[in-house]
Amino acid sequence: MPRSTSDLIQDRARLMGPNVATFYDDPVHFVRGEDVWLWDAEGRKYLDCYNNVPHVGHCNPRVVQAICHQASTLNTHTRYLHDGILDYIEALTATMDATLSTAIMTCTGSEANDIALRMAEAITKKRGIIATDATYHGNTSLVSQLSRSNIPTVGFGLGDYFRFVDAPDSYRNPDPDGTKFAQNVKAQIAALEASETGFAALVVCPYFLNEGFPDNPDGWLKPAADVVRAAGGLLICDEVQSGFGRTGSHLWAYEKMGVIPDIVTLGKPMANGHPVGGLVTRMEIVTAFREGYRYFNTFGGNPVSSAAAMAVLQEIQERDLVTHAKSVGDYARERLELLKTKHACIGDVRGSGLIFGAEMVLDRDLKTPASAFTDRVINVMRQRGIILSKLGRHKNTLKIRPPMVFSYEHADLLFDTLDEVLGTVPLST
């Protein structure tokens, strides 16, 4: 007999331990998904405006068929030869700059970022890593040190190798051409170089999604990239959230930001929910890494994972989902701007393609973060059948990041509901 919601919560604590995160004050129990829709155990239907893992839609038929066909044929690891991993890497790297010609397949973005940091050490012979102070790049012992929002209490002393710069904030601290950010990076490079650690790499999400996706213009990251290269370090772009056409302007957000990274890391949406991650880089970087580390990943790039990933890439390309993301995303921002004229709690609207949202404030003039209000809004939206979340330094920016098949009709349902909710949820309690 299926567990009740309360039984699920109790059994999670009993079987999985304490502090296992759930969304919402009233956690939701999903049992089925299709396209942009989810159904809970009671049969209620929800519009998914949050999940980028089912990138081309929940239970996408092409991806499901690819997984089933390959699983019924062969699945093993990459110490045996198989075409799938090579076909996929060739197709993936063909979408990037010609210098980014080789890849390592993993199961998660955390693993990919972990490898990227080790690659930076292998190339530079140094260990100093710079990141923003409001980001997240994964949960291995190494990359967990990059998160300032949830600083680990253990970590084998690895935190000594990390330095942080202020995350960009186009609303409260504009930096129109990226020079202030570049100067901050340069200062931290100097500090690392003055120590025994030295400077190895800057790692960023090129669209700064966890930081609240500030409205930085195209090409904004180039000054920081120039500083990194002048210092002999590597630029690592974490495209786990921003990649595969999410911004609507390019397949990769690093293109939008005007840079060519040394390493691109990938994860969540890569295979529509099948656990696939990876990184793409230059041959000399992979060579230095493999000479310095004996690396093997049992499940990374296995035939079933490769088939799933290839199906996602084919869906994006054949259905022209990047163009679709731009069109629907532009419309979504228009709807949000209209809501801003009606609701004083919306301080700022921003986004690109199918990542968009609004920063909630208690006072527009003071730009006071309305963090508790934002939390109430997303919980009421959940009760109204709309799934979304929040992020940013103050956790007061609505994070709307739906599957890439999200349509105008879906956007209307989202914003009609949000309009009603903003008109009823009290700004303060």
Please give a structural write-up:
- The model has no long low-confidence stretch (mean pLDDT 95).
- Helices cover 36% and strands 17% of the residues.
- With 429 residues, the protein is an alpha/beta fold.
- A hairpin with a 2-residue loop joins β1 (30-34) and β2.
- The strands form four sheets. Strands 4-10-9-8-7-5-6 form a seven-stranded mixed beta sheet, with helices on both faces.
- The longest helix is centred in the last third of the chain and has 22 residues, at 321-342.
- It has twelve helices and 16 strands.
- It is globular and about 60 Å long.
Write the layout of secondary structure elements.
Elements lengths: L4 H12 L13 E5 L2 E4 L4 E4 L12 H11 L11 H11 L8 E5 L2 H16 L3 E5 L29 E4 L13 H15 L5 E6 L17 H9 L3 E5 L14 H4 L6 E4 L10 E5 L1 H10 L10 H16 L2 H22 L3 E7 L2 E9 L4 E2 L1 H13 L2 E2 L1 E3 L5 E3 L8 H15 L7
Parallel strand pairs: 3-14, 5-6, 5-7, 7-8, 8-9
Antiparallel strand pairs: 1-2, 2-3, 4-10, 9-10, 11-12, 12-13, 15-16
Helix pairs in contact: 2-9, 3-9, 4-8, 5-6, 10-12
